[in-house]
Amino acid sequence: MSKQRVLSGVQPTGNLHLGNYLGAIRNWVDLQHEYDNFFCVVDLHAITVPHDPKKLAHDTYNIAALYLACGIDLQYSTIFVQSHVSAHSELTWLLNCITPLNWLERMIQFKEKAKKQGENVGVGLLDYPVLMAADILLYDADKVPVGEDQKQHLELTRDIAARINDQFGSPTQPVLKVPEPLIRKEGARVMSLTDGTSKMSKSDPSDMSRINLLDPPELIEKKIKRCKTDPVRGLTFDDPERPECNNLLNLYAILSGKTKEEVATECGDLGWGQFKPLLTEAVINSLSPIQEKYTEIINDRGYLDSVLREGRHKANLVAHQTLTRVKEALGFLLVL
Ligand code: ATP
Ligand code: MG
């Protein structure tokens, strides 16, 4: 039996942070042997918010290098850049035409990011989830490993696929495969260092709100020293009044490889001054092998280019087949 397909991606909107790693990439790496994987750098998504054209290509390169540095193995996985496969844009248009506007207006990410953009919010931001649906559906993905913040977009992808199948397929011959989300509980929602109630994000204007995978040890130490805490003595998980405490303990548990129970016992009586150096050490130890590998990869442009060229070729083959299938189902004239 052939392996099931996995697809996921990250936007080149800045540096990868611990949330991206623990919510998404670490899970890609752990599961890759079981699946046939496509991991893309979703650069078309990155321009749904105002972007700097001088930085886009650099950030795209950077994220592709970090995928490899985090342990994505080309024996099991294909790495490519979304804009190198034009079928993503083309399928988005076809899906746009069957997606009701009010499905998109309800999306939480749209509402949150639109608020930040003010009055002249771009159509692309509203359309973001349709592009994401196209990314996933083009590869007939069975599973989509993402953080919890993307759950609503995945449900929308399933709804769009079901609608196409209803309107243009038949129960025995669906046009598109309906994918399943794959959200691992631990690390699914890493919160900001400066506000335990909002998620860690690349697009947060404050760099102090996140730990980037490429932050040097001194900066990690500084960010953890300054991060938001509370005046309560003793450290506990799952207290809704203490979101920062819960977030930092969870980070410590995942990065040190200890269970929640072990961490609760170890840290129950600690003050912040005693806990913060423990967390700092766990973060630095987890990130230093990734940073070393990243330096090797980013200094070998020829290699990275060849990875992305090969990825573009493999992704195009699969994506084009699906696009043709959808065009056929929608009744387009296809001339060979
Ligand atoms: P942006 O702020 O530009 O939207 P982002 O930090 O949200 O950037 P994305 O590129 O949108 O990152 O998301 C990439 C992957 O990382 C997705 O699977 C997403 O669910 C996951 N992810 C993002 N932030 C977190 C977080 N704080 N905790 C866990 N997973 C996260
Ligand atoms: Mg995001």
TrEMBL record:
It catalyses: tRNA(Trp) + L-tryptophan + ATP = L-tryptophyl-tRNA(Trp) + AMP + diphosphate + H(+). One of its GO terms (biological process) is tryptophanyl-tRNA aminoacylation. A motif ('KMSKS' region) lies at residues 199-203. PROSITE patterns: AA_TRNA_LIGASE_I. It comes from the Bacteria. It is an enzyme of class 6 (ligase). Homodimer. This is Tryptophan--tRNA ligase. It comes from Gloeothece verrucosa (strain PCC 7822) (Cyanothece sp. (strain PCC 7822)). The lineage of its organism: Bacteria, Bacillati, Cyanobacteriota, Cyanophyceae, Oscillatoriophycideae.
